[in-house]
């Protein structure tokens, strides 16, 4: 998530100063991404440097609001119409871990899969509990963010199910190159029950 | 504990062709607790549910419902316990097409010998609980899939049922309707029933207090009870 674009989007509503931006950011993301005020001011000064926002005179309380420039308004418009690229996201540590587990002697890959599945479903349970508590129709933004996390976690579990099913059929070609639990062969016949 | 499985084994067939559907499963479900059972096809999920509901008997070990060891009951007693205390929600809804919604819901009570008027009154209350009071006089083919599923849930929950067993209850429903069904199940459990939910959908299992993973008839892992979800926000930040 880009704080930069988050702040620009909020300034589209009208001029705001740092603390207002932080509160509005946390409110619209359901406090999923808490910001510290330092991050807000650092981001604002970069946005000012890039000509996307401009500072207004201080108000009576000594706070300095910022407003969007035309360039900033154009930037946020482009952001909203551009899909987020999956390749911009950090590398998937879990996929790498499983790939390594498969080729590391002595690792029980099915146990690695199950450990992750239990943890991910535990996360899903916690997210679901949060959803259960947010029945207010006015909380739509918050519920959609929760749903996004729910669907991502669910996708991970599906992928783990797929990994497990593939492991049952997996026969390493080189000796010592994989570590599927030895009972895998038996499982296959029982799975056909 | 409303439901207890103690050292339960279930073997189909004998000798070399024997299939061990369950191999020494222990599971307890208390009032107010919803337990989800997950696992690949053939892992023993449905066998476990059938045993819990007295639709099947263990080869070894015992199943206890409301303090009654099912193996010690005769067929009549078992049928009575099932009708009174156990509610089932299956993927195929098993609603009778020739009966209205309220008649479908009242059926298990009437079969149990309850006066028709009283049974219909309880059925109407159960339909109200699933927000279908106004559809009580409709026949199943006059309702949407989601509405029919809610009728099936009302039938599973009607009367005194303290143990609710659900096998893929959201079936082919869309995600919103499926979620509504799970909310109903959750609400009933929160009101004091014990529930077992068999599902292959992680998103649905997540409505449970505990998720039990079965593989080849053995419990291989269990999630711990859900803590305070606010902690999660710290993790996600």
Rg of chain A over CA atoms, rounded to whole Å, is: 24 Å
Unreliable segments of chain A (pLDDT under 50, ≥5 consecutive)?
176-193
How would you state the average pLDDT of chain B, rounded? Answer: 88
Total of domains of chain B: 1
Distance between the ends of chain A: 46 Å
Helix content of chain A: 55-70%
Q: At the fourth CATH level, what is the homologous superfamily of chain B?
A: P-loop containing nucleotide triphosphate hydrolases
Widest β-sheet, arrangement of strands of chain B: 6-7-8-3-9-10
Number of strands of chain A: 2
Into which percent range does the helicity of residues of chain B fall? 25-40%
Task: Write a brief structural summary.
Helix content of chain A is 62%, strand content 3%. Chain A has 193 residues and is mainly alpha-helical.
Write structural notes for this entry.
The complex is a heterodimer of chains A (193) and B (237). Chain A is mainly alpha-helical and 193 residues long. Chain A folds into 2 domains: 3-87, Winged helix-like DNA-binding domain superfamily/Winged helix DNA-binding domain (Arc Repressor Mutant, subunit A); 90-191. Helix content of chain A is 62%, strand content 3%. In chain A, α2 (18-28) crosses α3 (37-49) and α6 (109-133) runs antiparallel to α7 (140-169). Chain A starts with a helix and ends with a helix. Mean pLDDT of chain A is 80; it is low at 176-193. Chain B has 8 helices and 10 strands. Chain B has helices spanning 45-52, 75-85, 101-111, 116-129, 145-157, 175-190, 202-205, 230-236, and strands spanning 3-12, 19-29, 34-38, 60-65, 68-69, 86-89, 163-167, 194-198, 210-215, 218-222. The longest helix of chain B has 16 residues, at 175-190. Chain B is globular. Chain A binds chain B through residues 31-34, 114-115, 117-118, 120-130, 132-133, 149-151, 153-154, 157-158, 161, 164-165, 183, 186-187, 190-193, and chain B through 12, 19-21, 38, 40-43, 183, 186, 200-203, 205-209, 211, 213, 215-217, 220-224, 226-227, 229, 231-233, 235-237. Chain A: Residues 91-167 form the Transcription regulator PadR C-terminal domain.
């Amino acid at each position: 998530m880009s704080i930069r674009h988050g702040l620009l989007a909020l300034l589209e509503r009208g001029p705001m100063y740092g603390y207002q931006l932080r509160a509005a950011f946390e409110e619209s993301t359901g406090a999923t991404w808490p910001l510290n005020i330092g991050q807000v001011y650092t981001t604002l000064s970069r946005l000012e440097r890039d000509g996307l926002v401009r500072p207004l005179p201080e108000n009576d309380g000594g706070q300095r609001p910022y407003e969007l420039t035309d360039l900033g308004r154009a930037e946020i418009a482009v952001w909203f119409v551009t899909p987020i690229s999956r390749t911009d996201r950090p590398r998937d540590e879990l996929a790498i871990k499983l790939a390594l587990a498969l080729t590391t002697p002595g690792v029980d890959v099915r146990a690695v899969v199950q450990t992750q599945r239990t943890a991910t479903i535990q996360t899903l349970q916690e997210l679901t509990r949060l959803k259960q508590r947010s029945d207010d129709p006015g909380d739509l933004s918050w519920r959609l963010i929760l749903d996004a996390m729910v669907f991502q976690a669910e996708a991970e579990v599906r992928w783990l199910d797929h990994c497990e099913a593939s492991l049952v059929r997996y026969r390493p070609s080189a000796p010592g190159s994989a570590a599927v639990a030895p009972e895998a062969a038996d499982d296959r016949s029982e799975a056909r029950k | 504990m409303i439901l207890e499985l103690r050292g339960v084994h279930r073997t189909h067939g004998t000798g070399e062709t024997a299939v061990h559907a369950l191999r020494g499963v222990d599971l307890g479900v208390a009032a107010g607790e919803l337990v989800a059972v997950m696992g690949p096809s053939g892992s023993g999920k449905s066998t476990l549910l059938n045993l819990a509901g007295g639709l099947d008997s263990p080869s070894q070990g015992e199943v206890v419902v409301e303090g009654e060891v099912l193996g010690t009951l005769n067929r009549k007693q078992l049928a009575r316990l099932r009708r009174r205390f156990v509610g089932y929600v299956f993927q195929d809804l098993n609603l009778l097409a020739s009966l209205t919604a309220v008649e479908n819901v009242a059926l298990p009570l009437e079969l149990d010998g309850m006066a028709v008027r009283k049974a219909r009154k309880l059925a109407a209350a159960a339909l109200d609980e699933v927000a279908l009071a106004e559809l009580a006089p409709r026949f199943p083919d006059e309702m949407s899939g989601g509405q029919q599923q809610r009728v099936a849930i009302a039938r599973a929950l009607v009367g005194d049922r303290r143990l609710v067993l659900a096998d893929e209850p959201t079936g082919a429903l869309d995600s919103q309707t499926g979620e509504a069904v799970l909310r109903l199940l959750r609400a009933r459990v929160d009101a004091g029933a014990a529930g077992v939910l068999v599902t292959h959908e992680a998103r649905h299992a997540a409505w449970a207090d505990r998720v039990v993973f079965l593989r080849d008839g053995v419990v291989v892992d269990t999630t711990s009870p859900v803590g305070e979800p606010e902690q999660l926000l710290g993790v996600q930040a």
